[in-house]
Amino acid sequence: MTDRDIASAVLGCVGGAGNVIANSLCMTRLRITVANPTAINRESLGLIDGVLGTATRGTNGIEVVFGPLIVQGVFDAFSMLTGIPSDYDPLAGFRRSVSNLHVHITPGRRKSYSAQANANEQAREAHAAADEVDEDILTLEQLLEGDESNQTAEASADAALERRVLVINGPNINMIGIREPDLYGREDYPAMLELCKLAAREAGFVDCRCFQSNHEGDLVDEIQDAYQVFDGIVINPGAYTHTSIALLDALKAVSIPTIEVHISKVEEREDFRQVSYVRQACIETITGMGIEGYRVAIQHLAEYLGM
């Protein structure tokens, strides 16, 4: 496929040019902001030649990862197809008005934790002082006070009640079922993923994203990208549990209710495993239940969120 063919395929998977608000390039990632994120077909994106993966960025954004040799050509072709300059940012003026605070207020989106609620309040005050109102970042109050129909207001209110959970797994968790089965069990990683998805649906979550990496920075990025997107996190940092202050800082930064999970009973293992840095940012720790611990964690998160 040519760069233009790939760009055209990506464009089709994100709802077409009419759904794209902005496009930019960061390292090996094509960053796309859309008006309607439900129009994104992630499965089809993953099947396009050259696409190495995707990542959520905010509520209305997605990053499509390419290899370094083709990403520039694909990005240039994508920008030509959308007709949107690469440096265009629909929220640039809004972001300047709130200094270093980068908050994207989405329609009717509510958070149950105080840090994000305070950030949203500051952003709303700054937005009210702006000369023009961007319809893509209207708050629920503005929708209700406007001339929109009752159906629109009700749909926004329903969206505010939707909850999303993120399951993060650290190094070697993808090797369960193979790795020391007497310690970690014989159920494999795909079985864990299936369990998490089912448990999330049963608990009432509208979305359950599962992410695994053997690299600390990737885990930090995933936690940061969860800000204002996910309402709860289940995390098994693997060996990084005992070493990573960076993961602790990331969890504290986003202030999302988080439950720490360990497949084995770490409290009965080696001395070095008795230290957990991330625990300071978690509301609960679950150990020694095998992959069933993920189900319990998701259920407890739902209860904590009042679902």
Short description:
The protein has 307 residues and is of the alpha/beta class. 38% of the residues lie in helices and 17% in strands.
Structural description of this entry:
- The chain starts with a helix and ends with a helix.
- The protein is 38% helix and 17% strand.
- Helix 1 crosses helix 3 (71-82) and helix 10 (216-225) packs parallel to helix 11 (245-254).
- By secondary structure, the protein is α/β, with parallel strands linked by helices.
- The model is unreliable at 90-160 (pLDDT under 50).
- The strands form 2 sheets. It has a 5-stranded parallel β-sheet with strand order 6-5-7-8-9, sandwiched between helices. It has a 4-stranded antiparallel β-sheet with strand order 1-2-4-3, with helices on one face.
- It has 3 domains: 3-82, 2-Layer Sandwich (Gyrase A, domain 2); 92-160, no CATH class; 163-304, Dehydroquinase, class II (Rossmann fold).
